[in-house]
Design a protein that fits this description.
405 residues, alpha/beta, Transferase(Phosphotransferase), domain 1, eight-stranded parallel β-sheet, five-stranded antiparallel β-sheet, 6 helices, binds adenosine-5'-triphosphate, transferase, Leu-rich_rpt_typical-subtyp, nucleotide-binding
Length: 405
C-alpha cells in the first residue's frame, strides 16, 4: 500500500478485517495508529521505506505480530518496545541509522535479526540470551567485538559480520555450536589480502571497450548479469554489474577479490577479470567478467523463506537419482575443497547458490558474495572455520539425500 488514505479506506470498508499482513510505504513520519484496528490479527508488518524514527510504546498490543520489517527509516536506536513483543521472531532494520541497541530491545522469541548497514559499535549481552536465534545479519556496521554469550547460542546457524571493524576473529565465532554460514570479509582482519588481490589483478582488468553488452541473462540480489561479446572475437562471457556498494553479505570489492583469489575451477563460478571503471561515466559501475555458463542450468533450490529462515526451499517435486545426487554432491564438495585449499571460506554454501543441469547432473557453485579470504588469520583458526563450513555441506547433503528416489 502506498498511502495512508488507502489504508484508511480499506479499514473503513472492512476489506482489511482479519488481515494478517500489511506493507505500507507512504513517507510516514509517525506510526499510523489506524493499524491498531488490526492489533489482534496482524502477523507481519512491513513499514520499510518511510521516515519513522520511533515506534509507539503500546506496539505490544499487536499480540500476534511475528515479523516486523522497518528497513530504510531514520531510526537511531532499536526501539525498546520490541523487547516486550511476545511473539516477535523476525526483526529487520536494514539501512537505518541505528547506533544503539539496548539490552531490553530484543524480543524474547527472536529468531532472525537484520541490522545490516547501520552504525552499531556494540551489541548487548542479552543477544546471547535468545535461545531461538538462528540468523544474525550484522554486515556493514562498526563492530569490533561480539557479546560473549553469543558463543553458546545453540541454534545460531547464519552470521554476517562483513564490513565491520574486527581486527581479529571474535573468539565467540569458533565456539558457536551450530554455525554453518559465516561472512566476515571487509574487516581489518581480512582487508589487506583483499586489497592485495585487487591490486595484483588491476593491470589485467578488462576495459569497457573490450566488450559489447548484450541481453540480460538474469539478476539476483546483488547484480544484473548480461551476456557480453568480446570485440576481439573471443568467446562470449557474462558480465555481472553490481547493483549497490554493499549487500547483506558484504561489498562487491570483497566478492571480486575472493573470486579472483580463488581462480578457475570447473565447478565454481569465479570471475575471469574485473571490468575497469569507466572514468568518463557519470555513475561508477562496478562490474566483473565471468565465464558464460552453458544453457540448461538452474538453481538447485530457492532461497530460504521467512518460515524456513536458514534453510532453502526446494520445488515440491524435486527428486534426484542416487547417481545424480552423488555426482552433484561430489562436484560441490570439490568446489568447496578448492576454495578451502586457497585459504578461503565460501560463506554461503546453499542449494540456491548451486546452478545445476537436471539433464546431465552437472553443477556449479556460484555467488562468492559472502566469501572470505582467511590468509591473515592464524592457521588453526582457518582450519576451524573451514571445518565449520562443512556443516553447511552436511545440511546440503541431507537435503539432497532426503529427495533421492
Ligand atoms: N556466468 C553466467 N552465465 C550465464 N548466466 C548467468 C551467469 N551468472 C548468472 N547467470 C544468470 O543470472 C541469474 C542471476 O544470477 P545470480 O543469482 O548469481 O545473481 P547475483 O545477483 O549474482 O546473486 P545473489 O542474488 O546471490 O547476490 C542466474 O540465475 C543465471 O540465470
Amino acid at each position: 500500500m502506498q498511502s495512508l488514505q488507502a489504508l484508511q479506506e480499506q479499514l473503513h470498508s472492512g476489506a482489511l478485517r482479519g488481515a494478517r499482513q500489511i506493507k505500507l510505504a507512504a513517507d510516514l513520519r509517525e506510526f499510523p495508529r489506524e493499524l491498531f484496528a488490526l492489533a489482534d490479527t496482524l502477523e507481519m508488518l512491513d513499514l520499510s521505506g518511510n521516515q519513522l524514527s520511533s515506534l509507539p510504546d503500546d506496539l505490544t498490543r499487536f499480540s500476534q505480530l511475528r515479523v516486523l520489517f522497518v528497513s530504510n527509516n531514520p531510526f537511531t536506536e532499536l526501539p525498546r518496545v520490541l523487547g516486550r513483543m511476545p511473539r516477535l521472531e523476525m526483526v529487520g532494520f536494514k539501512a537505518c541509522q541505528i547506533r544503539t541497541v539496548t539490552a531490553d530491545s530484543l524480543p524474547p522469541q527472536l529468531r532472525w535479526l537484520i541490522l545490516t548497514d547501520n552504525q552499531i559499535t556494540e551489541l548487548p549481552d542479552t543477544l546471547g540470551e535468545r535461545p531461538r536465534l538462528q540468523k544474525l545479519m550484522l554486515a556493514c556496521n562498526q563492530l569490533q567485538s561480539l557479546p560473549s554469550g553469543l558463543a553458546h547460542s545453540p541454534r545460531l546457524e547464519l552470521l554476517r559480520l562483513a564490513g565491520n571493524r574486527f581486527a581479529a576473529l571474535p573468539p565467540e565465532v569458533l565456539a558457536m555450536p551450530a554455525l554453518a554460514w559465516l561472512a566476515m570479509a571487509g574487516n581489518p582482519m581480512t582487508l589487506h589480502s583483499e586489497q592485495q588481490v585487487l591490486q595484483a589483478n588491476a593491470a589485467a582488468a578488462w576495459r569497457g571497450d573490450d566488450l559489447q553488452r548484450q541481453e540480460l541473462l538474469g539478476h539476483g540480489a546483488s547484480g544484473h548479469i548480461y551476456r557480453a561479446s568480446a570485440v576481439d572475437g573471443g568467446p562470449d562471457v557474462a558480465l555481472k554489474v553490481f547493483k549497490a556498494g554493499q549487500t547483506s553479505d558484504g561489498t562487491p570489492q570483497s566478492e571480486m577479490a575472493a573470486g579472483l583469489a580463488a581462480g578457475q575451477h570447473p565447478h565454481l563460478l569465479t570471475p575471469l577479470a574485473v571490468l575497469q571503471a569507466d572514468v568518463h561515466a557519470s555513475s561508477q559501475e562496478l562490474a566483473m567478467v565471468l565465464p558464460l555458463l552453458p544453457p540448461g542450468l538452474q538453481p538447485l533450490a530457492g532461497p530460504p523463506s521467512l518460515a524456513r529462515c536458514t534453510r532453502d526451499v526446494y520445488a515440491d517435486g524435486a527428486r534426484f537419482s542416487a547417481a545424480g545426487a552423488q555426482r552433484l554432491l561430489a562436484q560441490v564438495r570439490s568446489a568447496v575443497a578448492h576454495l578451502h585449499g586457497h585459504g578461503m571460506l565460501h560463506g554461503d554454501v546453499y542449494a540456491h547458490n548451486i546452478l545445476w543441469n537436471p539433464a546431465t547432473g552437472d553443477a556449479v557453485l556460484s555467488d562468492l558474495g559472502a566469501a572470505s579470504m582467511l590468509g591473515e588469520l592464524p592457521a588453526a583458526q582457518r582450519l576451524q572455520l573451514q571445518q565449520m563450513e562443512l556443516r553447511a555441506l552436511q545440511h546440503l547433503e541431507a537435503e539432497v539425500q532426503a529427495r533421492m528416489h
